[in-house]
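During the reporting period the student researcher (J.K.) took over the structure-prediction task from the postdoctoral fellow and processed the backlog of single-chain submissions. One of the processed entries is reproduced below for the supervisory committee.
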Amino acid sequence: MSILKEKYEAVIGLEVHVQLLTNSKIFSSSSAAFGGAPNSKVDPVCLGLPGVLPVLNRQTVNFAMRVGLATNCKIGRHSIFARKNYFYPDLPKGYQISQFEEPVCEHGYLDFEVNGQMKRVGITRIHLEEDAGKSIHAEEFVGSDETLVDVNRCGVPLVEIVSEPDIRLASEAVAYLVELRRIVQYLGLCDGNMEEGSLRCDANISIRPVGGTELGVKTELKNMNSISGVENAINYEIHRQIELLESGGAVTQQTLLWNADKGIARAMRSKEYSHDYRYFPDPDLVPLEISDAWLQEVKSALPELPRARKNRLIAEYKLPQYDAEVLTATRPLADYFEATAGACADAKAASNWIMGEVLRYLKENEITIEAFSVPPGEIAELLNLVGDGTINLKVARIVFGAMLETGKRAAVIVKEKGLVQVSDTAQITAQVRMVLSDHPAEVEKYVAGKEQVVGFLVGQVMRATRGQANPKIVNEVLRTELQALADS
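J.K. obtained the following structure tokens:
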């Protein structure tokens, strides 16, 4: 890393493929859903059989405009589809329908935070295209030396988001990708699942001397199916290129496949240029024309985006930046928080509870907030019982567990189990005196100046009252009684 900082800098651009959440494929009526038996979600159009004609799925254009507007792009009112010609087993037509010279979106940018600083990366273009199939190679089948092909994914709609080479570090690439994934999830056009391939990232990487302006020879990294994989692969390739140049070698323009298990990349093929694909306008598809009315319709339906929502939560609910960042990680989580905070007397208490108890439960049970069984209003009711002194936080956790188990509301559980917090000073004083009588050694330690025994004695009082005593009053009474003993 020191060599990179002192002598070289990396120049990185990302190509992010986003699988669109449409019911059908981009040019045919076959299902675009993930999974299913191999080669079961196919039709003559995505197989390219003679005599078929593609028909553009309008929703894919809506989605492309959405992500274009969210990344400050210019929306092309006139764009065309082209045939990208190459031959590979998982591309039965021998070409892929994509956009080349006239994409639907271009000249945008994305702002995001990395290491406490704002960073802007330019967006070169965003274009629509169809996905190819999937080749399943020999290493995935023990004892097999064959390559199998599943064409279910052929024709699944994608937008490809191509960045400018404005990224210099793997950490910046990760922050850019995380922000972009949050945006497409907020827009409702992709689930962002890299493991299932609904969001895929390729990285173009070159290095040059620090302060240089000319670009070095670039390589392309593929097969990165996780955020950590993107970071590890980019760091690997940066250091590989540095070591190659330092040893007197030269970087070759090629495509590399990342192997996450081994932590290395291997050469797949020499890197192609655009002319290698022999692009030409698809004769079966008319140009795409976007009217003012259509564009305005898409603009008016845009949701609040993650950065804007985070800033609003900070301003409106007086949350710390960390809380707002966590709570806006996904749109459903942010919705859940706002619904809870709207019915809760203390928004910060709602934030704390959701980030603590709720997210812990989701993680332990491997579910998302959408599958969480307790509605926001019932969490607010529980927290309001804490806020008005009916129960304390320790009891609230017990009640929360009972809510999850029974589906009952907090107030019902508190009443049934007799969990109302004890705030009667006389009652608490009696309990405190009993505890002090049972622990003379700790009293002597306090009199001798050892303040730390107070915490132990508070715990004993809370245990004696089954956690129902008001901790604040317990603390006050206990200190008064201890001081009286010390003065006697």
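The committee noted the following: The chain has three domains: 2-296, 304-417, 425-487.
J.K. will present the remaining backlog at the next meeting.
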